[in-house]
Specification:
- There is one protein chain.
- The protein has two domains: 2-122 and 197-290, 3-Layer(aba) Sandwich (Malonyl-Coenzyme A Acyl Carrier Protein, domain 2), CATH 3.40.366; 125-187, Alpha-Beta Plaits (2-Layer Sandwich).
- The protein has 13 helices and ten strands.
- The radius of gyration is 18 Å and the shape is globular.
- A hairpin with a 6-residue loop joins strand 7 (222-223) and strand 8 (230-231).
- It starts with a strand and ends with a strand.
- Helix 2 (26-39) runs antiparallel to helix 5 (58-74), helix 5 (58-74) runs antiparallel to helix 7 and helix 7 (103-123) packs antiparallel against helix 10.
- It has 291 residues and is α/β, with parallel strands linked by helices.
- Helix content is 49%, strand content 17%.
- The protein has a four-stranded parallel β-sheet, with helices on both faces.
Length: 291
């Protein structure tokens, strides 16, 4: 029996996230305050009391989810992962969990990633949409047929693929995909076209930050979004973290690979239960729970 710890990305935030942890656990409170100090503003005020709109800003959302997810792991007793993975931003939390990154260095990278992505969003106004009820191949073919930037971004589970692109590209794709039989083609309330070529401007900035950060040998493999394969090689991990900005998140494929490599219990560490639902849709036989 192998335990896989999984970490959520953007979209799992909610007002009040982490407050109970802050109020009830001294170690957690110290880590939250450490994060406030490192960021130079009290992100806890926004996490605990901010509106949905406050929390939706990329530069707030990403550090907030990282902080909550990672602190849950760091204060957990008997934490001993066999495998880890994170959805998009969650990959940074996963790398703290397997000891490849320190809490402080992970937060610094997440802040730089969020700022770079926010800038890319401002340069290229864009969006994403969730496509429900079509085979991946159908979605891929329709994206290719459109003469605008639009491409698969998140392979979440069978029958659920998120696409990313320009406003025009997403609108055209949603119309065509609905005609092709999608049960839903729903534009998402996100800041931009994550995991698409429109994030290219953020890549150089993130690469330089990652190359300048000290990574340690991990204690267990991380299954990376870009390859859906396990890695313990630091150079490979760094390279895939950079590629992840413009490449699709192979989440369903990662879960399948982890199961084939022996994972029997998936434990989500972070706000919400989104990933547990996705794991169940990939395979109903495995156990899922929260940290």
């Amino acid at each position: 029996m192998k335990r896989a710890y999984i970490y959520p990305g953007q979209g799992s935030q909610f007002s009040g996230m982490g407050k109970e942890l802050f109020d009830s656990n001294t170690h957690a409170r110290d880590l939250f305050e450490q994060a406030n100090h490192a960021l130079g503003f009290r992100i806890t005020d926004i996490m605990f009391n901010g509106t949905g709109d406050d929390l939706r800003q990329t530069k707030v959302t990403q550090p907030a989810i990282y902080i909550h997810s990672t602190i849950l792991t760091l204060i957990s007793e008997n934490f001993n992962p066999d495998l880890v993975a994170g959805h998009s931003l969650g990959e940074f939390s996963a790398l703290v969990a397997n000891k490849a990154l320190s809490f402080e260095d992970g937060l610094d990278l997440v802040e730089k990633r969020a700022t770079a992505m926010q800038r890319a969003c401002e340069q290229n106004p864009s969006t994403m949409a969730a496509i429900i009820g079509l085979q991946d191949q159908v979605v891929e073919d329709i994206c290719v047929s459109i003469d605008e930037v639009v491409a698969p971004a998140n392979y979440n589970c069978p029958g659920q693929l998120v696409i990313s692109g320009s406003y025009e590209g997403i609108e055209q794709a949603c119309n065509k995909l609905t005609e092709a039989g999608a049960r839903r083609a729903l534009q998402l309330p996100v800041g931009g076209a994550f995991h698409s070529s429109l994030m290219e401007p953020a890549k150089a900035e993130l690469e330089s930050a990652i190359l300048g950060t000290n990574f340690s040998t991990p204690i267990c493999p991380v299954y990376q979004n870009v390859t859906a394969s396990p890695s313990m090689n630091i150079d490979e991990i760094k390279s895939n973290l950079v590629k992840q900005l413009t490449a699709p998140v192979l989440w369903a494929q990662s879960i399948e690979r982890m199961i084939s490599d022996g994972a029997t219990h998936f434990i989500e560490s972070g706000p919400g239960k989104v990933l547990q639902g996705l794991v169940r849709k990939v395979n109903r036989e495995v156990e899922v729970s929260s940290i």
